[in-house]
Automatic annotation (TrEMBL):
Signal peptide start-end: none
Pfam families hit by this protein: SufE
Family the UniProt entry places it in: Belongs to the SufE family.
Protein name, UniProt field: Sulfur acceptor protein => iron-sulfur cluster assembly SufE
InterPro entries in UniProt: Fe-S_metab-assoc_dom
PANTHER family documented for this protein: SUFE-LIKE PROTEIN 2, CHLOROPLASTIC (PTHR43597:SF5), SULFUR ACCEPTOR PROTEIN CSDE (PTHR43597)
Residue intervals of the Fe-S metabolism associated domain: 15-133
Length: 140
């Protein structure tokens, strides 16, 4: 299952990256820094159809299928949310629809993120993961 190894490798790299930080303030700063590296969407991409529902912050996610791999781009108006989006996209972007659907986001629990997010951020993260899966299903 080469596909599975690819997403698992992406998740393992996230876990390893987070192991170097001493506390959650450093981890939050790292997440914020990751969000700064997201490509900005153009105005035409920031439509209601592309807007993520169920997230307190504004998040837009766009996608396209290239060589049977789903490529995602996203932007958020909140720094920490942009970083969370960047983490998720590092696992799921540029993967086949089947690979996306077969991949559980185990890195969230492995880095302890599930314990340190507010309920509203957790709901937004869940909405993002659900949206990615719906998009992948639509391409199957």
């Amino acid at each position: 299952m080469e596909c599975q190894k690819t997403t698992m490798k992406s998740q393992q790299e996230i876990v390893e990256d987070f192991e170097i930080f001493e506390d959650w303030m450093e981890k939050y700063q790292y997440i914020i820094d990751l969000g700064k590296d997201l490509d900005k969407l153009n105005h035409a991409e920031k439509t209601d159809d592309n807007k993520l529902q169920g997230c307190q912050s504004q998040v837009w996610i766009v996608h396209k299928l290239v060589n049977n791999k789903v490529q995602f781009k996203a932007e958020s108006d909140a720094a920490i949310v942009a970083g969370l989006v960047a983490l998720v996209l590092s696992v799921y972007s540029d993967k086949t629809p089947a690979e996306i659907l077969a991949t559980e986001p185990v890195f969230i629990a492995e880095i302890g993120l599930d314990k340190y997010l507010s309920p509203t951020r957790s709901n937004g993260l869940s909405s993002l993961l659900t949206r990615i899966r719906v998009i992948a299903k639509d391409y199957c």
